[in-house]
Write a structure and sequence with these properties.
The chain is of the alpha/beta class. 21% of the residues lie in helices and 32% in strands. It has 2 domains: 6-104, Elongation Factor Tu (Ef-tu), domain 3 (Beta Barrel), CATH 2.40.30.10; 115-263, Nucleotide-binding domain of ferredoxin-NADP reductase (FNR) module (Rossmann fold, 3-Layer(aba) Sandwich), CATH 3.40.50.80. Bound molecules: flavin-adenine dinucleotide.
Amino acid sequence: MARELYTARLLRKTCISEVAQCYHFVFEVEGRDSFDYLPGQFISAVAPDENGKQQTRAYSIASAASGSKFELCVNRVENGFFSNYLADLSDLPVGGTIQIHGPHGHFVLQEPITDSIFVATGTGVAPMRAFAEWLFPADGPDRSQGKDIWLVYGTRHETDVYYKEEFEALAKRAPNFHYLATLSRALDDWAGLRGHVQVHISKTVEERAKLRGIPLPLDPAIVAAAQSFDIYCYICGLNFMVSGVRELLDGYGWHKKQIVFERYD
Ligand SMILES: Cc1cc2nc3c(=O)[nH]c(=O)nc-3n(C[C@H](O)[C@H](O)[C@H](O)COP(=O)(O)OP(=O)(O)OC[C@H]3O[C@@H](n4cnc5c(N)ncnc54)[C@H](O)[C@@H]3O)c2cc1C
């Protein structure tokens, strides 16, 4: 059955990293009062390539649902068709349009909300931004229920730390939101965290287990809630990072259902 296609008009495009050629987009679905989705889901964007062949690519929505708008975070991939198509789309004088279908996907927050570690690299931060906006809305009641939320965001260089100011502001506003941006190729003047995301996930997991007096690795025969280890990890990015983090958590004896992930490749 053919999927229903919507036309989405670009309202605003902002370059959030010149070096990484990463853009933030605000779209509006035409002819609809609302475009509903769960934070963490993605849309499929459709456009014809230079040979007239329809190309479809998935893009995580980088915002919580708000009327008929949705936001994306996309970086140019060398010689890639769709990322460059989007990055070249103009928002002036009237925004260009794309066709989309969706929302799709199961990378969503599990209910009830638990303490959670969000792990992302690169544009994998997009669904984490949607989670954060939904859990800690700027203009509505908090949905985090006081649970501790860590965002461990890894990238190589300081120029690729997307939405840094936004997440820092959120960490100031919400004491249970912890923002850990770490660089694997930091210059000498970087005052923040260093190393791959795994280093900081390990620290977070081990500190929390110690605080609660829980020995690691966990006993896989005992359900997580029964051993007071009801913490989830949400991972998004390229497969090599996602696999690495899953292996790390497997090593701690984490239950499979507590590891929710989305792979971009
Ligand atoms: C569920 C899901 C959600 C996604 N969300 C986002 C998102 O929020 N933001 C975003 O920027 N991307 C996202 N992606 C990736 C996106 O769908 C495209 O794969 C990406 O934009 C490249 O498409 P392209 O047409 O430009 O490149 P293509 O023409 O498909 O590929 C060109 C070359 O680049 C390589 N390549 C493909 N994808 C990537 C990549 N992601 N990184 C590096 N090299 C790649 C290919 O192997 C190929 O050699 C998501 C993917 C999935 C599956």
